[in-house]
Amino acid sequence: MHLLAATPGSVDDGKEPVDLGQTPADVIFISAADTELAALSTARSEMSDPPGLRLASMMHLQHPMSVDLHIDACASKAKLVVARVLGGTGYWKYGFEQYAARLADAGVAFVALPGDDKPDPELRMFSTVSDADYDALWAYLVEGGPKNSVNFLHYCTAMISTREAPQAAQPLLRAGIYWPGAGISNITDVQAEWIEGAAVAPVIFYRALVQGAGLNPINRIVKALLRVGLNPLPVFVASLKDPISVATLDQLFQSAAPDVILNCTSFAVGNPHGDGSPDNPLTLPSALKAPIFQVVLSASTEQSWEEGLSGLSARDIAMNVALPEVDGRILSRAVSFKGEAFFDEATECPIATYKARGDRISFVANLASNWTNLRRTAAAERQVALVVANYPNKDGRLANGVGLDTPTSAIYVLRHLQQAGYDVQDLPVDSADLMAQVMAGPTNWLTERADRSGGETLSLAHYLEQYQSLPYALRTRIEERWGEPRADPFFEPDTTIAEGGFKLSILRFGNVTIGLQPARGYNIDPTETYHSPDLVPPHNYLAFYFWLRHSQGAHAIVHLGKHGNLEWLPGKALALSEECLPEAILGPMPHIYPFIVNDPGEGTQAKRRTQAVIIDHLTPPLTRAETYGPLRDLEALVDEYYEAAGIDPRRLDYLRREILTLTATSGLDKDIGFKGEETGDLAKLDAYLCDLKEAQIRDGLHIFGQTPEGRQLRDLTIALARIPRGSGKGRDASLLRSMADDLDLQFDPLDCDLAGLWQGPKPNSLVHLSDDIWRSNGDTVERLELLAQHLMDSTAQTPGKKSSEVMAHIHNDISPKLAICGPSELAGLLKALSGQFVSPAPSGAPTRGRLDVLPTGRNFYSVDSRAVPTPTAWALGWKSANMLIDKHLQDHGDWPRALLLTAWGTANMRTGGDDIAQCLALMGVKPKWDSANRRVTGFEVIPASALGRPRVDVTLRISGFFRDAFPGLIDLVDSA
């Protein structure tokens, strides 16, 4: 074991001990909040007679050895030690126990304070000062701000000397207006600084930044918004759930209606289980449906962001990306990072503060400005670009969206834009006419395209004007791979344009254009390179988007349907830089993305890398050809793998082994052509599953904005009721299972050997439905599905009570939700194109029991609180529980009988629930998952003979966010 130097950001997990190297002083203050340490450092420097003070970050005291070293060298020689922590004793258990015990032995006063304004009796019990002193110190820190920080240190001095105590803590508003240079302000004074008639852009941030001298990023954001012609309204809040903060925002929005909202706070107001939150202050009527941007103040260092490809830490992703998506916020960029501003010699502590990144702040300001331009431009003057995909890059796959009839959808959207007042001219007669016009231009298929003369042209001069503005390193990579611009096969000399230009597959229809998204390259295998993490695009790709952004002057770009490729271009996973290809190409454009509702993984990629607002759409009408068995399990494992890659790398090795093992045992490795190279094989599997899902739904594609009708609507409704939903009981039961139960067939139609010989009864109500031979279990399932069709057509009676209850649910709930999907999709698109907020919603396959995703037409998110713990998290939790039990047995010679575990909401999200899995494993119970949607449906008790040890009595202590976000897990643990 070795010691590490204590530098901010370099040690944050407690895996290695840290020696702070501090010398003794009268007063020692320990906190995990960098802003609090910075505030006290500043306060001490402004005092004429400060106490001897040492400041220490709790992040550097996570390892037990670090705690012991600090107590020995410094804390035991002090007169007063104050530790403040958010999360209670469980967050820093060893630290509290050791400081309390050893400081008591040394006669040093110890104060253990909560990190928020909520009393914590356990922390107070560790403290050795009077209640009056405890409450006074706590109040100074809770209220915060420069004056209270100074008086906190004066009070510490009074406690260890004969000096008089300072005045009591001065309250800081729970929420209010701030202005750079003026401090706490009011709406009248702020409006005096504004540009008359300009759009209002509230900037919402934590009150703690005012308390702890962390306002540098806010000051920079305010100035950047003024530069782009917006009126910033900086508002600090205790939290977006605090009633006073909510009321303050509502009042301010009524006084100054927002056009866009920039939110710098973490977490979500709504719940990830899809219940929504009517109390979200950013979506109250007074907010006037303003779009909300998530602006990230990262807890990572700028160096780690610059050098890495992950973009943000797992903690940042959970708190500042995944959870805010639940509220429908648009991810912008990380605009500041924590770094070492200076080493404070007086307190012997490195002081870390938020360090603003100028180019990231400029991007966010321009993004906000562009959305306000979209919002304030009349429909008749809005320039809109519709981009359709071409995967793979063949003429037979033009405008190919997964599960979407993209050409027909494009025509449908054009007609409704025209009806909504957009300047749409020379509409194609139908989808065939549209495709004929596209085929007349330069498509991605290079063969036989020499005679095609349609489309638009971007001159070389205009191309170079934009291209030269890209970072040098980026241009170098493009030219090393594809050569100089004139070498591009889409570049053509033209006598009408000086020096020639790029021929682009773009059609004009008034102010609305339709473009065929370029391929990521030419003379390559498109299926193997579509998701390639390092293939830079050729010049014609850049030219395409340069034309849309600058020649057309698009106010918004709409990528119509999955499978686009912009979101897969090289660069960081999220929190992009100017050298990331998606940003370099798309820029700070409003981006709207109609996307199939059952693919949250790839949709989330677009949300996080291309600031996309998703407008989710229905799956195809005919969906009986779902993936089952190994294919379904592989699809779920691959989705979890890509999710874990960003937030929980510990799961990756296990998931990789599971995926490759399942692929081998099912024989798919030979079908796909695995070569024994893990990374390449996983990429091939991903492409294979994409192609397979696409092939399965060719029998009837969804038209964006339209609800299926007739037979297609009937079959889709049956598909939605085929799988259990919600509780899986009563009205939520499987329609097929309920009919089988009513008919006393004594088998499970969702989990049987379809080829097996049918040996059950053959009731007349099923016999007459088909003249086909009734021989196998599959024949029985087919007859049940035929009966379901008759029930939907009202040409048969339900066979019993169970199926009657499900049919009532279909008529009263499922069918009405389906009916409004088409109109809701179109309304969602029109809202986004009007620069308005699009409501959030869960995502997933409605045909796998996920009726909570209906109606479609909303901005989906990927968090599913009912799918934890995942099977992978269970495997890890089971392993860790056994290791813990074995260690206790080894150390104490007996089995553990009772344990207290602390569960945090963000950690539970990040790990897929391995902390809850560990809890269940200790208790000797195992989660049960629905085979169709992998949601947790209950638990099974592991027999004592199989467990081989006594069950552990587990008491679970949870955070407030865990309580709100995972009520199902609380019920699961209580039931177990």
List keywords for this structure.
single chain; 976 residues; alpha/beta; Rossmann fold; 6 domains; 8-stranded mixed β-sheet; 6-stranded mixed β-sheet; 37 helices; 27 strands; globular
Give an overview of the whole structure.
The protein is of the alpha/beta class. The protein folds into six domains: 27-159, 3-Layer(aba) Sandwich (Rossmann fold); 176-373, Rossmann fold, CATH 3.40.50; 380-569 and 580-617, no CATH class; 629-696, no CATH class; 710-819, no CATH class; 865-975, no CATH class. The strands form seven sheets. The chain has an eight-stranded mixed sheet, sandwiched between helices. A six-stranded mixed sheet has the order 17-18-13-19-20-21, sandwiched between helices. Helix 22 runs antiparallel to helix 23 (652-665) and helix 27 packs antiparallel against helix 30. The longest helix is centred in the C-terminal third of the chain and has 22 residues, at 871-892. It is globular. The model is unreliable at 1-14 and 694-698 (pLDDT under 50).
